[in-house]
Design a protein that fits this description.
This is WAP-type 'four-disulfide core. This protein has 700 residues and is α+β, with helices and mostly antiparallel strands. It contains eleven helices and 36 strands.
Length: 700
């Protein structure tokens, strides 16, 4: 016994469901004895003893260890520290230890055991499944069924029946308890452990392992909305008391609810991810989705794609827009859905290409797409059912590939043409790479003599360290092997969020290039831009266009974007070795009016703090003559009609040797508080505010 106790302490204890249920039955038995003289609760105990145990502090403390798994008895007792009844909880730990060591019954005698075969498959009864015991035979220990049983144990239930109720997906399971002694009939702590297993076919060998569904103190159980359509279920039950259990009944006949399994709906959140062009000039496109809700386990996903047209893509996207607009009107939604089914046909085997991906996948790459093309992509989930394989509804998305000349193939040399950076909120645009003479290559193909309408190809903005996009005008008549110089003018026309002072940041940013393409960096999220390209030598107009950037959350990126830092209320842009530009956002507050901003600049090398006072409509500041290679801290505090308001702060680092390829933006450090909003109205109050600011500046 000492050896068994030592093994229990050192070994990992993982009691099976019968041991756990026996522990719970012991707790119910103790509560039943404790309340046997309480006539008011006797009738309630008969029918609701499990619920009363949850509400009783002592019984609840007793049953807490029964539901857990512990490495040793010390860990079990440690869990009792926070218990309302620590002593009862620890007593339950000792009881759990005892019933784990030894189950009811006696080991059978084993004959013909070879003296040369020694094994130790178990050490204690609790390591054996269900009712089996750990029995010794010669030099071996193995799990065997007991040869005798205790008469105190409840009979094994029999005649299990399963019946579907009127409400679909709701069933009642009944069983016969067998002949009980008078003492067993008067016991309120008799429990029935109900388990199930399921499969797509009525074949026991293809079903899952047994799983516990519920524990009841009555000879029946009602399961509501637990069974899924299209699955065959088998049930079994075991009668358990504080004395133990004789084990489980024979399984019920396979049962399937009348509701048939439906094919899964379309995958959720179907969207396009990053795209890239390979050396052959073809495009690869990532497609993402989330699993749809399904009655049956998803077997796999099938992705199909085929060439389409711009008009078909536009029509489908317009239908989806209308559907989204009208989805709250039930009758309009039904009408719209029926119209969509008639108008939209789908791939229907026209030059279809397909790929099957496993059920755990939530993305796939479509390869070999031609440039300047439109593709229709369909994806659906497949499930196995008792009636065969079911194919789910199709999710649809369109891919529009760009000109392969507007992107850099992965296995080619990286882009070395001119790169333009648009600083946030500033009026500067810098070229990061030296200008390069135009050469006859794939970037500037020979054009036929007949004029063609110029087209500005703009790649979808993407995030790679910062927000950027590539543009080219390779099909313009001015784009020839002859050396030319172009003027690329970019202007931010509108920003919807997180971009302060966009009303004052509308100047044209001009850069000169000697190639028919350019890379724009340092763009702002959720803004609109206008681009104009002219021939610098002749002044002739070449091409123009507009593009928009998405919000940070919607922008494609090879790595996750920390949008919380990118869109902080204050941002600083290092523009050279000794200069920086900072700007901040407005914050609405109906209780206070911002009449100015107090900006503090500090660094470790200067004990003095640079203080600046700005008008409420001016939410930016520029610093010159900064020391290279130091960390600067900027704090912006709002000045309101009620005094000093909230503060935001950030840090930026100047570089000792900042070249044109290493301009960095520091999107903001710790946010202390948000600034308040300016009223933005010019009145007598504004004149008074200006006078107040001048006076305050002198005081500082």
């Amino acid at each position: 016994m000492i050896l068994l106790l030592l093994l229990f302490i050192l070994g990992s204890v993982s009691p099976d469901e019968l041991i756990s249920t026996r522990c719970q039955a012991q707790c119910l038995h103790l509560m039943d004895q404790r309340l046997q003289n309480n006539m008011e609760l006797r009738k309630t105990l008969k029918h609701h003893i499990i619920q009363l145990c949850k509400e009783d502090a002592t019984c609840s403390a007793c049953s807490a260890p029964c539901r857990e798994q512990f490495d040793d008895i010390k860990a079990c007792k440690k869990s009792c520290v926070a218990s309302d009844d620590r002593e009862t909880c620890e007593d339950s730990c000792h009881y759990l230890q005892r019933i784990y060591q030894e189950k009811p019954g006696a080991c059978p005698s084993v004959s013909n055991q070879s003296n040369y075969e020694c094994s130790a498959l178990c050490q204690m009864d609790g390591e054996c499944p269900e009712t089996q015991k750990c029995c010794s035979s010669g030099c071996s220990r193995q799990c065997l069924k007991p040869r005798s049983s205790d008469i105190k144990l409840l009979p094994i239930p029999r005649n299990i029946s399963v019946q579907e109720r009127k409400r679909k997906r709701s069933i009642i399971i009944r069983w016969a308890t067998g002949r009980l002694s008078k003492a067993q009939q008067n016991e309120n702590a008799n429990l029935f452990l109900v388990q199930w297993r399921w499969g797509l076919h009525a074949d026991e060998s293809a079903m899952t392992e047994w799983q516990t569904v519920t524990v009841r103190n009555k000879p029946y159980a009602i399961l509501k909305h637990l069974l899924s359509p299209g699955r065959f279920y088998e049930f079994r039950t075991a009668a358990v008391s504080q004395e133990g259990s004789l084990g489980f009944s024979s399984p019920s006949k396979p049962f399937k609810i009348s509701k048939e399994a439906k094919a899964p709906p379309p995958p959720k959140d179907l969207s396009l991810g990053a795209s890239k062009v390979v050396a052959s000039g073809l495009w690869n496109q990532m497609v993402h989705w989330n699993p749809p809700p399904s009655d049956l386990p998803i077997k796999n996903y099938q992705i199909s794609w085929a060439s389409s047209t711009k008009s078909e893509a536009d029509a489908f996207e317009e239908q989806m827009r209308k559907k989204s607009t009208l989805e709250f009107a039930a009758h309009e939604k039904r009408s719209l859905q029926s119209d969509d089914d008639e108008e939209f046909i789908g791939i229907q085997e026209r030059d279809r290409q397909s790929v099957v991906v496993p059920s755990h996948a939530t993305s796939s790459e479509i390869t070999g797409l031609f440039p300047n093309s439109v593709y229709l992509v369909e994806i659906h989930a497949s499930v196995d059912s008792s009636d065969g394989e079911l194919h789910g509804e199709k999710g649809v998305v369109f891919i529009r590939t760009a000109d392969s000349l507007s992107a850099v193939p992965e296995d080619r040399e990286p882009y070395t043409g001119p790169k333009a950076r648009i600083a946030h909120g500033s009026e500067e645009l810098k070229i990061e790479a030296s200008l390069k003479d135009l050469k006859t290559s794939s970037h500037a193909p020979n054009r036929p003599n007949s004029p063609q309408p110029a087209h500005l190809e703009i790649q979808t903005p993407f995030f790679d360290t910062e927000l950027q996009t590539q543009l080219n005008w390779l099909n313009a008549a001015h784009c020839t092997p002859a050396k030319r110089q172009f003027s690329v003018k970019v202007r931010k026309t509108l920003c919807r969020e997180y971009q302060p002072n966009h009303h004052s940041d509308t100047r044209w940013h001009d850069l000169r290039v000697t190639d028919c393409s350019a890379l724009l960096k340092g763009l702002s999220f959720d803004c609109d831009y206008k681009v104009e390209v002219t021939d610098t030598l002749t002044g002739d107009f070449v091409v123009d266009g507009v593009f928009s950037t998405d919000t940070c959350d919607q922008t494609s990126s090879l790595t996750p974007i920390d949008c919380s830092s990118v869109t902080t209320p204050i941002q600083c842009q290092v523009t050279s070795e000794s200069s920086a530009h900072c700007h901040w956002t407005r914050h609405h507050d109906a209780m206070q009016t911002v009449i100015g901003y107090r900006i503090l600049l500090s660094s470790p090398i200067n004990h003095d703090t640079n203080t600046t006072i700005n008008q409420p409509q001016l939410r930016e500041v520029r610093y010159e003559n900064l020391a290279p290679g130091y960390v600067y801290t900027v704090e912006v505090q709002s000045i309101t009609n009620k005094g000093l308001g909230r503060t935001v702060s950030t840090q930026f680092v100047t570089h000792p040797d900042l070249d044109s390829n290493a301009i960095q933006r520091f999107p903001g450090g710790e946010i202390i508080e948000l600034p308040l909003e300016s009223s933005g109205k010019l009145s007598i109050f504004s004149i008074f505010s200006s006078f107040f600011l001048v006076l305050l500046l002198r005081l500082l």
